[in-house]
Amino acid sequence: MTYCVGIMTHEGLVMASDSRSNAGYDQVNICRKMHTFVIPGERAFVLLCSGSLSCSQSVVTLLRRDFDQGLGLAKAGSLYDAARVVGDQVRRVSDMDRKALEQDDYKFNVHFILGGQILGQAHDLYMIYPQGNPLAATVDSPFLQIGECKYGRPILDRGVRYERTTLEDAARYAMISIDSTIRSNVTVGPPIDLLVYNKDDFEITKFRRFAAKDPDLQAVHAQWEQALRKAVQELPPVRFGEPEPEL
Fold first, then answer.
1. HEC states along 189-234?
2. What are the pLDDT digits (tens) for 218-230?
3. What is the pTM of this model?
């Protein structure tokens, strides 16, 4: 299983992913799920992936090959067009592999989050579905998740606001969201990749990988749990009145 999240604020983008890949309880591996495509000064893209590892690797390989030749993501005229480029490669891999997978009862299942910016345009964030169609983040819904989403969503719903959340705080929300998912689902785990993109930079300068025993990752886990328990203790007491009469 996987958990990836992209957050869009007025200051830029925060992208985060775990690195655990498993095909059963006895086949647990580490695999990078964050990929960057950058032409300094012109465009910068960050791609997160979840689902079938073999299929997502095929998509990334095709995207990288075209990008290195000045095609695909290297020529896309907008972030929407770039999301469509990713979707086209998803459909291409689907055409190659779906029939063979499904005849052996394997589902073609890949999801992507694409964030970034092209010179002269605003930064943006998209999710690409297994069918190849994109969905854009919005000012009202400024984050996107793929993989094991449910455990990490509540903190994002309560805290992330496009106009008010700084990139520094968005990075904290991403870390807490991933930590909450790791705490509740053993199929999601470190290393954790975290990338912060300041709008109009057109390069990647803020990236960090957190190993399982990284002291900063452990501090996030410990301090968040302590703060949560303290907040619960400070809530107003639950009041109980007289029992309702039986009808």
1. CCCEEEEEEECCCCCCCEEEEECCCCHHHHHHHHHHHHHHHHHHHC
2. 999 999 999 999 9
3. 0.92
